[in-house]
Design goal:
alpha+beta, two-stranded antiparallel sheet
């Protein structure tokens, strides 16, 4: 799905965060038991646009509906993020799943853009798997000279 449509005021923002690992050997600096906590994420904001604000209100209403269906404190708390003073949706997922929790899941190798030095791939060999639930697909929206998506 390509989602780079321009807004009426021309503003949009996407900021990402990732774990930056130095060197080629992480075995001495990060214990394998901690690998399951590694996350990647993105914060998406509409920079004050009405359509994005409506979308964030809808997301809050959906959460409220789920919240009413669970006993107290059984649904993880969720709150809207902010970016540059505007509402933002923060989305994360884990890089790894313990193999014992997904014994039938197939390993999906990291692509070279995400893991150019093979560090994450090496970490996955320590009782963890990078499977379909951990994999993130990256899309690029290309615009032609007329500003149309291709």
């Amino acid at each position: 799905m390509c989602s780079c449509s321009p807004t009426s005021n021309g503003k949009a923002s996407v900021s990402g965060c990732s774990i930056i690992l130095g060197g080629s050997d992480t075995s001495n600096s990060i214990k394998p038991a901690r690998y399951k906590f590694f996350r990647q994420g993105v914060s998406i904001t509409g920079a004050g646009t009405a359509i994005f604000n409506d979308a964030t209100k809808a997301a809050q209403e959906i959460y409220a509906q789920f919240y009413r269906q669970f006993p107290d404190k059984k649904l993880e708390a969720w709150s809207m993020g902010t970016y540059a003073g505007h509402p933002a949706l923060d989305v994360t997922n884990r890089y790894f799943t313990p193999k014992r929790d997904a014994p039938e899941m197939q390993h999906i190798p990291f692509n070279n853009v995400v893991d150019p030095h093979g560090i994450l791939e090496d970490m996955a060999r320590s009782g963890y798997i990078h499977g379909k639930d951990n994999n993130v697909l990256y899309y690029i929206c290309h615009l032609n000279e007329q500003g149309e998506r291709r």
